[in-house]
Amino acid sequence: MREDGTTSSRAPTLVLGIGNILLADDGVGVRAIEALRRTAVPAGVDVVDGGTAGADLLDILAERQKVIVVDAVDVGAQPGTVVRLSPEDLGSVGDRGISLHEVGLAQALAMVELLGIGPRKAIILGVQVESISCGLHLSRPVAEAMSKIVGQVLREVA
What we know:
Blueprint: E1 13-18, H1 28-36, E2 45-51, H2 58-61, E3 66-73, E4 82-85, H3 102-114, E5 121-128, H4 140-144, H5 146-157
Parallel strand pairs: 1-2, 1-3, 3-5
Antiparallel strand pairs: 4-5
């Protein structure tokens, strides 16, 4: 048994970036993971590119103490704005939800919770998109927010 009370060999904290890099700002979660991999991340933290896997992320999410997800959102804010959300917030803005991936992410988090292997704490750092049209590059406001996104992730894992 580890000193944090778990028996898992995986890092207790997971930073997960999700999104599709072929759709401009939709790839912000993956781009954040790329930036974090160039940064000193504390021990005990796994940094994972979840791409567009959605509900296929069950194994990655399982048996963590804390999960921080970076994802593209549409909350009607200025592009590049970073919002801190809980899993319960994902479907809170009318019928459309706020995360561009809320179905897969919300389902995956709910499934690991039902199985009793979910994280004790899950945080979603959503980044307001400007464009999700075809393209490999983030829009200017989202790209300019990258250092803020990385900084907030590092504060959350500290």
